[in-house]
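ARCHIVE CARD
CATEGORY: sequence design from structure
SOURCE FIELD: tokenized fold
FIELD CONTENT:
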């Protein structure tokens, strides 16, 4: 039998050494299978923010599909139309007059720009690394795994009496994808390793390197990918697209890549990374990658008591959960997978996580794998702060900052407004215009929603420099547009935003008129409130812009707020319209419940009851039928303090919207597709069941499901700059540990039916102050409950 020492004698233990072939995986952080991936959606992902790979795990002919974060077709284009501005007052008046058919028709004809696919572009695959082994396909003891705690995919098997192992990871410190091949076979490893791409690329052997270069047509980035090879024992020979390797004991393949999106010389940048990797060697790269990944992944730990089923393959556990079997630890595994994905696809210097994170196959992935900003990219970053991965939020911030000058132009040209605006989708080229159909395209709230993430980052970290230098400028830009876009409803005098849709939904107006846009749909009103109130608060904290803050306050006082309809539901539109699709996947009018916090069971019980009734109605008609929608519903139930209903929708997502590799799915015209937002949304929702910190309160175990009877979580973050550890047993909190990074006072809400009976500061008892905890930076506070 091959031992760990035999296979990894060139790598130190700090590199995160692999298991021996016979080891059982008693580890809640490992996904594993007994067979290779049959499809792309069953492969295991690795990534370093810039360079990603999908590892299929075939023994004889392996495919490792590659992505580079900025490999896009398309180019910058002028899509803003002055005609939009001219039509705007006419459309508004028609809507105020109740002429919905005419308003929708005019808006579609005069306000929208046709989407130009050739300039908008698409995220694309970098290509494939193919490994063809010259050994028998009679394989035994097969195992394929993804270790979330180390960031590594591995494949192991035996052919005859010989063992083979393959380890794949993408190193952030060294900007390189590493494929390590090892065997104890007497005749070593013989194989061919080749780079390829279906079109728009050329490959060539270049000394000790294989080079693949190209550019998408008709427009796109110039890209380069390099493949290097180091063998121990045996020999290698370079040809036009790869290496031929004979009788090697170990083989290390290095892949580097870049584009001219952010590197003026992508081939040169790739060569520098490759030369550095070859010089440093596998052991040093593996150690650095292990330390880098662990520093992020180990910040949070979640343990849920229950039967230990980690020795069962992940697909079999998922199948059992779908049948209703109890496996609380599977929820922890899913939570950890979401954190793993964010670590792998959103790092310093990268573009943000797109609709598929970092991983997409082919040249035209669904919806171009672009940056939808009408919930999808925002949901991608819901776990960032609460899961202690605050710095991974930065690619999203930098992307929004890049969009800002384009968004300011759109605001001016299309609307005649100050500030900045973007709509439902964007790309790396700065697309912010109204495009396509008014049902999705006439929604000027995408940048405003995105700006709220800047505020959330400040709220969690209390970083005043970030608030001053980065958060406030984008909040103010969005607040300026909001102030200019709001107009008085002639019937009530209240300020309403519009025209706007309620994302992707359709109403039925009197006379059986179907429409998309109104004045002041509830989501637009809630986003306006959120942007204006956060901007006003930021100005106050910074002691700046007193006049502008006053303008925000005045608008908030006149703003139409969420309303309850005659049937007790929260209204989605300006009037109580009929619904074309009562079970629609978007539940946009509940924005104020989450991610906003203007609706709360304690503070606004009537609105919370109306939100609940709306949610129940939507679900009774088939809502939450996509993965991301089920994740949002999980979050809604958590905010309503309904843990059992929240976990029910976690199980729904696992049952109906999860691939065997735990990727989230979205129904499409030709079957389900991968869309990563559900993974991230559900990860955040699991955290939300355990800790909530919006609205000035620190709520502990606010929505604990009865199925999670006992457990422990460490490292979650809360607003106000604190870390939170919790332990509970038999459904009741035992203790909480608070670790502040700044001084502050927190209103602590104990779990339902419990109270704090003891509070300690660095182990010493504190005077009893029910519900209030004053904390000092660097000290440790312990709360015990009864």
């Amino acid at each position: 039998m091959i031992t760990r020492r035999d296979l990894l004698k060139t790598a130190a233990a700090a590199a995160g050494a692999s298991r021996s072939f016979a080891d059982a995986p008693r580890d809640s952080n490992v996904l594993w299978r007994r067979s290779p991936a049959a499809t792309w959606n069953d492969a295991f992902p690795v990534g370093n923010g810039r360079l990603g790979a999908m590892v299929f795990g075939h023994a004889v002919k392996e495919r490792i599909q590659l992505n580079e974060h900025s490999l896009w077709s398309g180019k910058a284009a002028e899509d803003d139309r002055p005609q939009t501005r001219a039509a705007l007052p006419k459309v508004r008046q028609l809507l105020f007059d109740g002429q919905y058919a005419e308003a929708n028709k005019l808006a579609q004809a005069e306000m929208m720009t046709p989407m130009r696919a050739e300039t908008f572009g698409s995220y694309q695959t970098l290509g494939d690394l193919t490994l063809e082994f010259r050994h028998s396909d009679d394989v035994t003891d097969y195992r394929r795994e993804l270790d979330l705690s180390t960031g590594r995919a591995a494949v192991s098997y035996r052919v005859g009496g010989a063992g083979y192992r393959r380890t794949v990871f993408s190193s952030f410190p060294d900007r390189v994808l590493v494929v390590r091949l090892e065997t104890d076979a007497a005749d070593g490893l013989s194989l061919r390793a080749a780079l390829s791409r279906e079109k728009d690329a050329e490959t060539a052997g270049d000394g000790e390197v294989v080079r693949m270069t190209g550019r998408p047509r008709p427009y796109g980035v110039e890209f380069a990918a390099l493949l290097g090879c180091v063998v121990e024992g045996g020999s290698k020979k370079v040809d036009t697209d790869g290496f031929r390797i004979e009788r090697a004991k170990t083989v290390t393949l290095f892949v580097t890549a870049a584009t001219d999106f952010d590197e003026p010389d992508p081939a040169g940048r790739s060569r520098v990374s490759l030369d550095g990797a070859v010089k440093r060697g596998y052991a040093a790269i593996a150690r650095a990658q292990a330390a880098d990944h662990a520093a992020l992944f180990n910040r949070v730990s979640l343990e849920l008591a229950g039967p230990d089923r980690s020795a069962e393959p992940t697909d079999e556990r998922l199948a059992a959960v779908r049948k209703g079997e109890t496996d609380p630890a599977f929820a922890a595994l899913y939570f950890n997978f979401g954190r793993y994905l964010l670590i792998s696809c959103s790092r310093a210097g990268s573009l943000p996580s797109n609709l598929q994170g970092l991983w997409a196959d082919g040249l035209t992935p669904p919806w171009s794998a672009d940056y939808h900003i009408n919930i999808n990219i925002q949901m991608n970053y819901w776990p960032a702060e609460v899961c202690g991965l605050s710095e991974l939020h930065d690619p999203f911030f930098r992307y929004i900052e890049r969009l800002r000058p384009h968004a300011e132009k759109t605001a001016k040209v299309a609307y005649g407004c100050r500030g900045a605006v973007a709509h439902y989708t964007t790309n790396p080229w700065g697309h912010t215009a109204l495009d396509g159909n008014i049902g999705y395209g006439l929604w000027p709230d995408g940048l405003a929603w995105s700006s709220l993430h800047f505020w959330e980052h400040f709220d969690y970290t209390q970083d005043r420099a970030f608030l001053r230098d980065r958060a406030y400028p984008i909040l103010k830009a969005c607040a300026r547009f909001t102030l200019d876009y709001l107009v008085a409803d002639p019937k009530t005098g209240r300020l309403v935003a519009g025209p706007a849709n309620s994302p992707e939904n359709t109403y039925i107006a009197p006379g059986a008129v179907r429409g998309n846009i109104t004045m002041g749909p509830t989501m637009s009103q809630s986003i306006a409130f959120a942007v204006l109130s956060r901007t006003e608060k930021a100005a106050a904290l910074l002691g700046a812009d007193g006049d502008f803050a006053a303008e925000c306050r005045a608008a908030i006082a006149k703003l139409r707020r969420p309303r309850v309809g005659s049937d007790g539901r929260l209204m989605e539109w300006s009037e109580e319209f009929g619904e074309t699709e009562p079970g629609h996947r978007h539940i946009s009018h509940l924005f104020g419940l989450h991610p906003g916090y203007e609706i709360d069971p304690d503070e606004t019980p009537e609105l919370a009851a109306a939100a609940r009734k709306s949610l129940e109605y939507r679900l009774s008609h088939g809502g939450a039928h996509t993965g991301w929608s089920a994740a949002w519903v999980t979050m809604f139930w958590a905010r309503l303090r309904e843990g059992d209903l929240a976990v029910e929708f976690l199980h729904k997502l696992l049952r109906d919207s999860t691939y065997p590799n735990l990727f989230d799915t979205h129904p499409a015209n030709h079957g389900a597709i991968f869309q990563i937002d559900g993974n991230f949304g559900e990860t955040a929702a699991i955290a939300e069941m355990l800790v909530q910190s919006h609205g000035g309160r620190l709520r502990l175990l606010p929505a604990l499901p009865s199925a999670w009877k006992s457990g422990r979580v460490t490292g979650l973050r809360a607003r106000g700059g604190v870390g939170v550890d919790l332990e509970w047993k038999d459904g009741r909190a035992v203790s909480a540990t608070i670790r502040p990074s700044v001084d502050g006072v927190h209103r602590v809400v104990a779990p339902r039916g419990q109270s704090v009976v003891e509070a300690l500061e660095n182990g010493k008892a504190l005077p009893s102050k029910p519900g209030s905890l004053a904390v000092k930076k660097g000290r440790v506070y312990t709360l015990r409950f009864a």
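CARD ANNOTATION: The longest helix spans residues 266-297. The chain is about 35% helix and 25% strand.
SHELF: design records, drawer C
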